[in-house]
């Protein structure tokens, strides 16, 4: 498995938009597959946030993760976020998500980010708790109960 930026594999943008739309499209008002695809245009970066990291195995994209700004409008002072961690069903349970999160943390740290945040529907922290993320608070955001977590990257 290798990691590349969406900016280096732009032809994967529609597939990624489809995955995101199928996974989270029902909780974002007035969204469509086309809007998900258009939003990904902002993530076609390699050396600045926002960006998307792709996990690629044997030439096939099997997962993705985003580094973004201000994911949750209710937390305007929390700037840098990890989000959009997605792994295709056949690759789940094979540590792809963990590897993507670790890669995203490394890239964020390299870009000068000292603190990352995320939101997860796994109210026990799930995958992220096992990777050293700390729960901050549980909130209902866009009608979904989520746990907001953080991780210091300067350790």
Main sheet strand line-up? 1-2-3-4
Mean pLDDT: 92
Uncertain residue ranges: none
Q: Determine Rg (CA atoms, Å).
A: 15 Å
Tell me the β content: 25-35%
Number of helices, where a helix is a run of at least 4 consecutive DSSP H or I residues: 4
What level of helicity do the residues show?
25-40%
Largest sheet: 4 strands, antiparallel
Order of helices and strands: EHHEEEHEHEE
DSSP strand tally: 7
Shape: globular
**How far is the first residue's CA from the last residue's CA?**
26 Å
Derived structural class: alpha+beta
Protein name: N-acetyltransferase domain-containing protein
InterPro entries: Acyl_CoA_acyltransferase (IPR016181), Bact_Acetyltransf (IPR050832), GNAT_dom (IPR000182)
Domain N-acetyltransferase: 11-154
Organism: Pseudoalteromonas holothuriae
Task: Give a description of the structure.
With 155 residues, the protein is an alpha+beta fold. It contains four helices and seven strands. It has helices spanning 13-24, 33-40, 96-110, 126-129, and strands at residues 2-5, 51-57, 60-69, 80-87, 115-120, 134-141, 144-152. The strands form two sheets. Strands 1-2-3-4 form a four-stranded antiparallel beta sheet, with helices on both faces. Strands 5-7-6 form a three-stranded antiparallel beta sheet. A hairpin with a 2-residue loop joins β6 (134-141) and β7. α1 crosses α2 (33-40). The longest helix has 15 residues, at 96-110. The radius of gyration is 15 Å and the shape is globular. The two termini are 26 Å apart. Pfam families: Acetyltransf_1. This is N-acetyltransferase domain-containing protein. It comes from Pseudoalteromonas holothuriae.
């Amino acid at each position: 498995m290798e990691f590349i930026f969406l900016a280096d594999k732009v032809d994967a943008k529609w597939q990624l938009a489809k995955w995101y739309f199928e996974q989270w499209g029902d909780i974002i008002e007035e969204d469509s597959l086309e809007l998900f695809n258009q939003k990904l245009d902002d993530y076609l970066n390699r050396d600045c946030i926002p960006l998307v990291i792709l996990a690629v195995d044997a030439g096939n994209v099997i997962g993705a993760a985003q580094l973004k700004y201000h994911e949750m409008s209710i937390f305007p002072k929390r700037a840098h976020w990890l989000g959009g961690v997605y792994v295709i069903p056949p690759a789940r349970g094979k540590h792809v998500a963990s590897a993507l999160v670790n890669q995203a943390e490394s890239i964020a740290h390299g870009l000068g980010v000292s603190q990352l945040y995320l939101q997860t529907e796994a109210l026990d922290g799930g995958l992220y708790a096992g990777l050293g993320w700390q729960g901050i608070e549980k909130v209902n955001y866009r009608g979904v109960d989520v746990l907001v977590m953080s991780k210091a990257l300067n350790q």
